[in-house]
Amino acid sequence: MEHFDVLIMGAGLSGIDAAHHLQKFCPKKTYVILEQRERVGGTWDLFRYPGIRSDSDMLTMGYSFRPWTLPKVISPGGDIREYIAGAARDEGIDRHIRFQHRILRAAWSSQDAKWTVEAVCSTAGGEERVTLSCNFLFSCAGYYRYSAGYTPDFPNAASFRGRIVHPQAWPQDLDYAGKQVVVIGSGATAATLIPAMADTAGHVTMLQRSPTYFFSAPGEDTMGAWLRRFLPPRWAYRLTRWRNVGFGFLFFQFSQRFPNFVKKGLINNVRKQLGPDFDIAKHFTPSYNPWEQRLCLIPDADMLKAIHSGRAGVVTDQIESFTEKGILLKSGQELEADIVVTATGLVMQAFGGAELSVDGQPVDPGKTLAYKGVMMSGVPNLASVFGYVNASWTLKADLICNYVCRLLNYMDRQGVRQVTPKAEGETAAALFVEKFTPGYIRRALEHWPRQGTKSPWRVYQNYFRDTISLKWKSVDDGALEFSNPAQASPKPASRQLAELSR
Predict the structure, then answer these.
(1) Which residues does 289 contact at the CB level (< 8 Å), separation at least 6?
(2) b/e burial code for range 287-296 (CB count within 10 A of at least 16 → b)
(3) What pLDDT sits at residue 109?
(4) Residue 331 CB: number of other CB atoms within 10 A?
(5) What sign has the CA pseudo-torsion 349, 294, 57, 302?
(6) Which of 92, 192, 249, 329 could hold 317 in an S-S bridge, CB 3.0 to 4.6 Å?
(7) Which value, to the nearest 10 degrees, does the dihedral of the CA atoms of residues 167, 173, 177, 182 take?
(8) Helix (H, G, I), strand (E, B), or coil: what is residue 210?
(9) Given this model, what pLDDT does residue 491 score?
């Protein structure tokens, strides 16, 4: 059985970041990346729908170690995938990746002080099971199910004569030129699809149950372009990155303290684009405060411009059922369509769907507490990346990767093989994500670790606070148990895997 010091799950944005940090800060560690797809990129290789782009600026969503130098900072998905692939290639990370390896389960053995990981490998001849072991398991597998997105059970959908597609499984042969298209949903995916499809479709209608906040920003960063004329790219990148980190932090804090003021400003910006006669109150005035759900970032107001031009429209109503011609609404209106796009969200999934066990006992994440938002109580030598909901994912990923390297180096200096968060005297007080209410979050949080009452058992959506906690505070904070377990009774991990797979 092959053995590695660290096994990374996933070769997306976070997985490549993790590998970079290991190579830089733990150069003697051996590692492997298992990736279920055929290429690097994760989300940015999976999603292929029209207009796919980032929902955060690439100055903060890019890597701290690799400047983003393209003009567009709200960037097309293809450019992001190439950026990730370039980082993997230039740093030699791609040599450590094993593609088409889907992890089924991982079992920790205190007797062996290691994880045994079982994966299925897709080959030209079919599928085969492979087993590897590692001292430390690092999940960078994202937060949602790759195989299929979330689609509600719409009544009478089978009667629709047109085509129903989900953005997560976009058919590359779909011809929507001149067609009547209805996009169900009003989140980031819908805001991306609508202006992209409106260029060639006959008409695109955004059908939403309730309104969303939209925030328009320039698609290109003129300050960054100006700075690159006088400064090395890395310096220009750092300056614009920190500018955007600071602005995002201050804007979120201001929104928390003065929600009505921010709400008014966001709605007024939409009104400026659509004009005084548009029914802003009905279609663009949410019932919740800003940041209770993620703001939809739209570059150069492209979606609003498509609506203002008449190439796209918005309907706020609920679905009664599908019909042969389209969708019947609760109001009695029927929306005729040739194509219906269900931009209805994701299915959250931890650890890429892999089953976890510790000394023969299955791990239920929902019954654990989150340690610094990185590890789980009672689960040794395991870390995972879950980014911010109010800022770029990579900002948190970068801090977590740095922390894991600090932790591994500390364990080496102390001569210990096992680290386990111990939540003694701490109780579950909140879900993993608080005050954030999108449907895909609400549907799944019971299966994610809980928060406790105080640090380090709280999950803070605060980059500067996390920087102190993950980058500067002592690794040994009293909540981690470092040990060299005795070679005793626990079953070897290989036996645990065999029992779990029965």
Answers:
(1) 255, 259, 260, 263
(2) eeebbebbbb
(3) 97
(4) 11
(5) positive
(6) 329
(7) -30
(8) coil
(9) 53
Q: How crowded is residue 497: how many other Cβ atoms within 10 Å of its Cβ?
A: 21
Q: Which long-range contacts (CB under 8 A, 24 or more apart) does 452-459 make?
A: 452/369, 452/370, 452/423, 452/426, 452/427, 452/428, 453/426, 453/427, 453/429, 454/426, 456/371, 456/372, 457/369, 457/370, 457/371, 457/377, 457/423, 457/426, 459/370, 459/373, 459/432, 459/433, 459/434
Same fold: 2-147+348-500 with 157-342? yes
Cα 93 to Cα 91: distance, rounded to the nearest angstrom: 5
Going from N- to C-terminal start, the domains of the chain cover 2-147+348-500, 157-342
Which helix H or strand E contains 217, and what residues bound it? strand 214-217
Q: Which of 54, 17, 56 is nearest to 33 (CA)?
A: 17
45 touches 70 (CB < 8 A): no
- Please write down the HEC assignment for all residues of 129-197: EEEEEEEEEEECCCCECCCCCCCCCCCCHHHCCCEEECHHHCCCCCCCCCCEEEEECCCHHHHHHHHHH
Burial string for 152-169 (b: 16+ CB within 10 Å, else e) reads eebeebeebebbbbbbbe
Question: What's the rounded Cα separation, in Å, for the pair 75 and 79?
Answer: 7
- 451 token code pair: 């928060």
Q: What is the pLDDT of residue 437?
A: 65
Q: Are 56 and 297 in contact (CB under 8 A)?
A: yes
Residue 180: name the closest of 319, 344, 342, 313 by CA. Answer: 313
State the pTM of this model.
0.93
Token pair for 417:
């093989």
- Rounded CA-CA distance 485/405 in Å is 22
Identify the pLDDT of residue 490.
46
One-letter amino acid of 218:
P
Instruction: Mark the ranges of the chain whose per-residue pLDDT is less than 70.
Output: 437, 487-502
Contacts 24+ apart (CB under 8 A), 124-131: 129/104, 130/101, 131/1, 131/494, 131/497
Structure tokens belonging to residue 343:
């931009």
158-190 residue pLDDT tens: 999 999 999 999 999 999 999 999 999 999 999
Distance CA 135, CA 5 (A): 5
Backbone phi and psi for residue 220, each to the nearest 5 degrees, phi listed first:
-120, 150
CATH fold of the domain at 2-147+348-500: FAD/NAD(P)-binding domain (3.50.50)
